[in-house]
Amino acid sequence: MTTPASNGHAGRPSLAAHASPWRNRPWSGVYPATLCPFHDDESIDEEGLVASIEDVASVPGIEGVVCNGHTGEIMSLDPAERAHVTKLVAEGVKRANAKTGRRVKVISGVSAEGSREAVDHAIAAREAGAEAILLMPPHHWLRFGRSSATAVGFIEDVAAGGGVSIIVHQYPAWTKAGYTLAEMQEMVKLPEVVMVKMGTRDMARWRYDYEELKAVAPHVSITTCHDEFLLASLLEGADGALIGFAGFVPELMVELVHAALDGDLARARKAGDIVAPLARIVYAFGEPGCGAHQRMKAAKWLLGKFPSPVFRRPLRPLSPEQLAAIRQGLEAIGFACPVDPAAAPLAVLQRRRPVGDRVAIA
User: Distance (Å, rounded) from C-alpha 32 to C-alpha 61?
Assistant: First the structure.
């Protein structure tokens, strides 16, 4: 008699059928969501961005870098800046690939409120050097919701007009912008969709949703973005991770993710023992968000691995006490912090430009 474990459920392939060899499948593995450095006046630090991307993309096991995500402060960047950031990131990746002989991908986030605008942003990202886009849902859905036809239609619109591969950004299930399983099953049928960045944050459904999506489109990668449930989501069923933490400590994230995907629990737990206290410093037992990304940027700066802790407004600079606490936390778990927290700017230097007869803050 065939057991459920060997046959999967309701004729579906078992989870093991998708587990190997993950290294040979495109769009699997580790994808860092990267930070964007700014000068004290909030202008983009172009040299710092290229250098930081080159460093991350040079790490063995990094399959692609993602710019213009929430970690990269997309909401504070105007459309021209987003395209420019993508171009600079592509330059950093090009330098890394020339050095390593590998082919790390470039992915750029797209956030737009309508299909026409999203298509324009997708085209701009592609022309700037992106191989794929991370397509976020329109944010007015968070307030007003949407129909299933609208949700699926939005992805269809960008697929038809953007001319670039798409990573669907799944928001938490408790938001009005989160996609249902049935909606995602339609989305992954589109040839342009190569990955779902699974941010459902519903661990009770994680394995079921993974199996059901794989049954429809086995070739589409399902990656976790659950920094706070990283190991659990990887072990339940995933093809990789698209996370901000991979841009913060890329070597450590490659070790943890690869060990989990290889089924080596002991090795994964060993890496997780280092990740856990770092995650408490950055995420403070919460989900990834602006506050966490700001702490991550500050922590990487204190470690001497990022040019500046400046985060664009409306967030205000972290206080000297907050920076000192981050440094203390890092040093307590064995990380050397060569940068003095006192070197951080206490306020953003506002740039002002004339607009008619008045002055606007840039």
Answer: 11
Is residue 156 packed enough to be buried (19+ CB in 10 Å), middle (13-18) or exposed (0-12)? middle
Spell out the domain ranges in the chain. 21-285
The residue among 126, 155, 135 whose CA lies nearest residue 74 is 135
H-state helical runs in the chain = 4-7, 46-57, 79-100, 115-128, 141-144, 148-162, 181-187, 206-216, 230-236, 245-248, 250-261, 265-283, 290-302, 320-332
Structure tokens at 189: 């049928």
d(CA 144, CA 64): 34
183-192: b (≥16 Cβ within 10 Å) or e:
bbbbbbebeb
| Cβ count within 10 A of residue 58 | 18
- pTM reported for the whole predicted model: 0.91
Side chain identity at residue 149, one-letter code: A
What single letter denotes the amino acid at residue 293? H
User: Which of 168, 177, 161 is closest to 133 using CA atoms?
Assistant: 168
For 285, phi then psi, to 5°, come to 65, 15
What CATH number was assigned to the domain covering residues 21-285? Answer: 3.20.20.70
Q: What is the mean pLDDT of residues 61-70?
A: 98
What's the sign of the alpha-carbon dihedral 205, 262, 254, 282? Answer: positive
Classified as helix, coil or strand, 161 is helix
Query: What does the pLDDT look like over 335-359, one tens digit per residue?
Result: 999 999 999 987 777 666 665 555 4
